[in-house]
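Q: Joint fold for the lines below.
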Amino acid sequence: MIELRNVTKNFAAVPAVFDFSLKIESGSFFVLVGPSGCGKSTVLRMINAMIVPDKGQIEVHGQDIRAIEPEKLRRGIGYVIQSAGLFPHWTAADNILAVPRLLKWSASQCAARLDALVALLRIDPALLSRYPRQLSGGQQQRIGVARALAADPDIVLMDEPFAALDPVSRVALQDEIRAIHARSAKTIVFVTHDMDEALRLATRLAVMNNGRLIQTGAPAAVLLAPADDFVRGFLGGDDLQLRLLDLVPVRTLMKQGKATAAATINVGASLKEALNLMLARRCSSLCVEDESGARLGEIHLNDIIARRDAI
Amino acid sequence: MRFDRGSLTATLTGLGCKPWLWLALFLIAATVLMPKAEPLMRWLFPGDPHPIYTRASFFELTLAHVELVAISSLAAAVIGIGLGIFVTRKSGREFAAMVSAIAAIGQTFPPVAVLALTIPMLGYGAAPALVALCLYAIFPVIEATLTGLHAVPATVREAAMGMGFAPRDVLTRIELPLAFPFILAGLRNAVIINIGTAAIASAAGALSLGSPIIEGLSASNPAYVLEGAFLVALLAIVADRCFTWLEDFTRLGGGPPK
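A: Joint structure:
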């Protein structure tokens, strides 16, 4: 667990973060979202002591981070930044193994971990001997994520890691990190200004503005009940209903029984995907299948329109 | 200059393309064979009864010259790189402007004036010359070190610190290797400048390739000047080629530290 208590940080007398308190539960995918300059990166960088707060207290796993040597703290926390920040004079493999080697892992431990990470992040092994300048932006950030996960930290901090990537690489890496989070008990603290990215990834969402925390909650809860006009505006007021559909799986509105519709959709897909398919096929109902292809029932357009989201 | 590494270089550049080696051999030959050039000097400077400098052998002069340059450049490298590192650390940042300014003054101060100031303190000989040369060479080294350290991307430094590199590891494993090509370029400048400037050491009574030049100037014997100047120029070219080779070698062979 990570806890910030009444944290304040000023840069040259300009407040960046003001009287900020936040609890991040272990195992959550916690997304800090807000406009540029709202202080979200400052909050992130205070967690691994890259920035020292002027006032307040930060605890990681119940221990005040001021009591921990910064290097030791950071070696236990994964860190990914926007431009990957790979070491240009090291190969991809050496970059990935930077922290294990700082921690003096044996060569065989390092080799085993490298193999595991290559499999986990689906890295082409041919890339491992290349230098960063020989890699595309997406490949570099994939290596950057592997480097952050290398020593298997409980906590991973990610500072707009995918903001500079092309849409294809971005979605691929978002899926990758979401899957990694789902399979592990890691706590991920993720900073972004992209609301779509935040909603796609978060299990908990915190909206920040002007150095203050405006609202926290489950993504759907924040979408359904924005605390104020700023949050409503930032969530993209006009698209709010469509965004909500993205968070609700088909499962919740499926009617079991006979299924006669022409098109089919997976039970785990979102209502937005269902609606999209209905529009594309010009139909008002879809068959619902599970992973094995067995038909479970049907979903109807009217049910989507009439639904009441219970969060 | 190790020959087991020679095989690597040979495959990369080809044996015939090692100009520094051929030039170095040519320089040694020139120092040894200079007295044999007497007929040429007599033809160039007719009427000169002693056209070959004989107070010391040219080999001896060249060796003394190289020694002056090597010692002063090494000292300048240690001081220059050290100061460059110091003023880019948290504790030394406030001295950055001052160090740059002092180094720049060192560069604009004529070496002859430094000699004039240091001879009363250190006496005649190599010592005042070494001080003058060292002061002269510090500036390019500091500038190159600062340029190299500032060229390290902020994101790379940030990533290293964020991953838990201690400040010392950031410096030795990330910043210095990345700044090395810049520092090497600065050293190259410093050494080349020093090879030319070291000739004034003879004005303080030290042995160098400047000895025949100064003697030639005072005794109106242009043959001596030509002999000294020729070897100084050749030495500078050899050093320059050596640095080119060193730059290529460290770029191609310099992999990541394990």
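Q: Anything notable?
A: Residues 167-183 of chain A form the longest helix (17 residues). The longest strand of chain A covers residues 14-24.
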